[in-house]
Amino acid sequence: MNIFINAQPVQLPDGACVADAVAHASAQHPPGVPVAVAVNLQFVPRAQYAHTPLHEGDRVEIIAPITGG
């Protein structure tokens, strides 16, 4: 299926879930860094990543915290 992760087109296998999208994007975020995820502008709690299916054309936003001083 074709979806968008942070506005970039991505192809994932049929039946993919939010956890798969987060794993795909993990190269952009160091391991262990918490992220916030929204699918089609709807927040998805971390506990639901594996239980939230993705569909053709979904738009996934993965946002990591920004630190600084």
Automatic annotation (TrEMBL):
- This one is known as ThiS: thiamine biosynthesis protein ThiS
NCBIfam families cross-referenced by the UniProt entry: thiS
Native source organism of the sequence: Tepidimonas thermarum
* InterPro entries assigned: Beta-grasp_dom_sf (IPR012675), Mopterin_synth/thiamin_S_b (IPR016155), Thi_S (IPR010035), ThiS/MoaD-like (IPR003749)
Offer one Pfam family short name for this entry. Answer: ThiS
Gene3D superfamilies in the record, alphabetically?
A: 3.10.20.30
What top-level branch of life does the organism fall under? Bacteria
